[in-house]
């Protein structure tokens, strides 16, 4: 689904087998894994994160960006596509159709994905 929306084709069922990549580097000390840079990519979308995972507390704390080839409006269908068209220019940055600041926190069993509003204010 990430690849479909990233390419601006949310209903294209022919996009079903997607090659992905997951390079990164990390250190482990005091039961905390710190990721200097982790990237995840599929056709049409890429995620770059930094952060940590506390093994003892099972706590995630990651921040980074989600870049889509498609514009925000192209990730939707029907009336939502037309409603979102006016905001496309606000999210088209750094050569991406859509650039969002994101965060991942919570636990490994219940991760929470969302916009990183603190990073957007800076």
Structure characterization notes:
With 122 residues, the protein is an alpha+beta fold. The chain has one domain. The chain has helices at 2-6, 78-84, 88-91, 117-121; strands spanning 24-29, 32-42, 45-54, 59-68, 98-106, 111-115. Strands 1-2-3-4-5-6 form a 6-stranded antiparallel sheet. A hairpin with a 2-residue loop joins strand 2 and strand 3. The protein is elongated and about 50 Å long.
What is the topological layout?
Layout: H1 2-6, E1 24-29, E2 32-42, E3 45-54, E4 59-68, H2 78-84, H3 88-91, E5 98-106, E6 111-115, H4 117-121
Antiparallel strand pairs: 1-2, 2-3, 3-4, 4-5, 5-6
Question: How many domains make up the coordinates?
Answer: 1
Could you say which overall geometry the principal axes of the C-alpha atoms support? elongated
Oligomer: single chain
Rg value: 16 Å
- Uncertain residue ranges: none
Percentage of residues in helical conformation: 10-25%
In brief:
By secondary structure, the chain is an alpha+beta fold. Helices cover 17% and strands 42% of the residues. The chain has one domain.
């Amino acid at each position: 689904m990430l690849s479909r929306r990233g390419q601006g084709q949310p209903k294209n069922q022919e996009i079903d087998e997607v090659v992905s990549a997951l390079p990164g580097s990390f250190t482990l000390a005091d039961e905390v894994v710190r990721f200097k840079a982790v990237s995840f990519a599929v056709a049409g979308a890429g995620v770059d994160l930094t952060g940590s995972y506390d093994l003892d507390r099972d706590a995630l704390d990651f921040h980074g960006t989600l870049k889509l080839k498609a514009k925000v409006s192209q990730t939707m269908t029907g009336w939502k596509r037309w409603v979102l068209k006016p905001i496309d220019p606000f999210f088209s940055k750094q050569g991406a159709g859509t650039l969002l600041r994101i965060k991942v926190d919570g636990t490994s069993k219940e991760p929470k994905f969302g916009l990183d509003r603190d990073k957007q204010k800076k």
